[in-house]
């Protein structure tokens, strides 16, 4: 690009070109140049290693190398990152071997660290760490990293540092944190405050209501129609209620658009075997869709019925794929299921009768577990590696997406949920918030305290 600008006589743009750029190493030459820099600095300059500094991470095909190139394209720095352990990637990565050529030291090191953090988070990582030479702790702290503890690497003092990945907390805050202040004194049946549905006093009826985000209705009206049924029957199922009917309220710009939304709603109604009893449709207005579901349960199951010491189980339908256009955000398994399979999943909580149950929706697995814990007046620990997860989903995506059918339960047996897969993956504990427990026993905090602010159910 600089050659083209020079030929065009644009000397000003040439002068304004950055001194370096950071990119992923795509060929053997770039990786070898990076390794040569490591040998120059870590072996010959610092004497940390004898002969070479290569290790098993250099042979792991999952390891990613980011390099910094100067204006001439010469590799003048680099860093590597990848999964911390052999076997399945559980969303725990480590960075290391950060190196910059002696003549280029300055801003390049910080840029490489920032690029590594961005790459790791984009790869669905929820725990990202690095062992840092003691003099470099100041740099990492300035960039937002947190000190964990002192360690020794190659016989030299280092510091284990951790990049604070706040993906789960940010989602919970964005979707749920305002509920307490907005809804206090407005709604709620004692024992079921903050639940997915609400028992109608004096009856065995349970009502649930969900609205679909207007931008989703505009973008994918058929899927929005399907989801309007899905989320509501899941809400009823989480309370152990069998669905008996739906009411829909639809706003659409014209008849054609309304027909597309209703086509998805109609297919879901038939697939789940739940009739649409009535509703309201208005044309000539911006897209809007909400559905109310009615069900029956003699003894509804609360979302806040858990106690410290109870094991937590996730039961989820892992079949399917990311919904086109929503990769990493919405998992679609239900549209390919037959009615008996869908009904088996819906009836599973009622059959097992756990102490607490909540379906995973907008707040993701971590945020929803935080809601169960908050309503139960305790905290929760989630075993990252034990959470059932589809092969096609990273930990970061799966823990923060809308997963189709997924139920979190506490204090009860396995759910007889047909094609869905379940596993114990944590427990309720004294305290507040949600902590992630990793295969090495390390604990990292994902949710500091309450999610909704609604408090005890």
From TrEMBL:
Q: Which domain of life is it from?
A: Bacteria
CDD domains recorded for this chain?
A: NAT_SF
Per UniProt, what is one GO molecular function of this protein? acyltransferase activity, transferring groups other than amino-acyl groups
N-acetyltransferase domain boundaries: 18-166
A Gene Ontology BP annotation from the UniProt entry: thiamine biosynthetic process
Q: Gene3D superfamilies, from UniProt?
A: 3.40.630.30, PurM-like C-terminal domain (3.90.650.10), PurM-like, N-terminal domain (3.30.1330.10)
Q: What is this protein called?
A: GNAT family N-acetyltransferase
Which organism is this protein's natural source? Amycolatopsis acidicola
């Amino acid at each position: 690009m600089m050659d083209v600008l020079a030929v065009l006589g644009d000397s000003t743009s040439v002068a304004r070109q950055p001194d370096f750029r950071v990119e992923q190493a795509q060929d053997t030459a770039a990786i070898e140049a990076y390794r040569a820099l490591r040998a120059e600095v870590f072996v010959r300059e610092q004497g940390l290693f004898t002969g070479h500094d290569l290790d098993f991470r250099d042979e792991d095909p999952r390891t990613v190398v980011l390099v910094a190139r100067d204006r001439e394209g010469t590799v003048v720095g680099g860093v590597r990152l990848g999964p911390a352990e052999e076997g399945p990637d559980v969303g725990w990565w480590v960075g290391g071997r950060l190196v910059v050529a002696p003549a280029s030291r300055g801003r390049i090191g910080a840029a490489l660290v920032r690029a590594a953090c961005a790459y790791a988070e984009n790869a669905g990582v929820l725990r990202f760490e690095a062992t840092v030479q003691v003099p470099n702790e100041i740099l990492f702290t300035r960039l937002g990293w947190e000190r964990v503890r002192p360690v020794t690497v190659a016989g030299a003092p280092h510091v284990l540092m951790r990049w604070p990945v706040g993906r789960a907390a940010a989602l919970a805050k964005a979707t749920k944190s305002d509920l307490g202040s907005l809804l206090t004194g407005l709604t709620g049946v004692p024992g079921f405050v903050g639940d997915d549905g609400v028992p109608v006093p004096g009856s065995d009826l349970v009502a649930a209501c969900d609205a679909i985000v207007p931008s989703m209705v505009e973008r994918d009206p058929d899927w929005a129609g399907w989801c309007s049924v899905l989320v509501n029957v899941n809400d009823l199922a989480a309370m152990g209620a069998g669905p008996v009917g739906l009411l829909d309220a639809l706003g659409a710009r014209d008849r054609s658009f309304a027909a597309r939304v209703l086509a998805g709603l109609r297919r879901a109604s038939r697939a789940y075997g739940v009739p649409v009893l009535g509703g309201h449709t208005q044309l000539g207005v911006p897209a809007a869709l909400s559905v109310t579901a009615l069900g029956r349960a003699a003894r509804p199951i609360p979302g806040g019925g858990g106690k410290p010491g109870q094991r937590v189980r996730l039961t989820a339908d892992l079949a399917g794929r990311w919904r086109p256009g929503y990769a990493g955000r919405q998992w679609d398994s239900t549209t390919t299921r037959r009615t008996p399979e869908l009904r088996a999943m819906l009836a599973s909580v009622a059959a097992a009768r756990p102490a607490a149950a909540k379906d995973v929706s907008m707040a993701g697995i971590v945020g929803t577990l935080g809601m169960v814990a908050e309503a139960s007046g305790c905290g929760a620990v989630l075993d990252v590696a034990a959470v059932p997860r589809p092969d096609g989903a990273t930990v970061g995506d799966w823990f923060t997406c809308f997963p189709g059918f997924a139920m979190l339960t506490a204090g009860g047996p396995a759910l007889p949920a047909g094609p869905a897969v379940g596993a114990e993956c944590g427990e309720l504990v004294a305290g507040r918030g949600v902590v992630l427990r990793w295969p090495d026993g390390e604990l990292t905090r994902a949710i500091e305290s309450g999610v909704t602010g609604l408090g005890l159910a």
